[in-house]
Write a structure and sequence with these properties.
Elements lengths: L8 H29 L4 H9 L8 H11 L4
Amino acid sequence: MVDFSCFARSFFGPNLVASSSPSMLAMFFFIALYMQNLHYSPLQAGVRFLQRPPDHGGGPAVGRLTDRIGHDR
């Protein structure tokens, strides 16, 4: 069985982010196919995703913030 004591507060955020990544990749795949069914070219559908801010771009900033204020709050 799963030992839930390892999911302390300091591990909740990274575990949440790690579990959401595969579902987001699947969502992008199906939305790209849907947009192509709406008569966008593959290039046009891909360019539409560039307007969305990147998910992992904030990682270094969050790491510096965690070093400064700590992770056990």
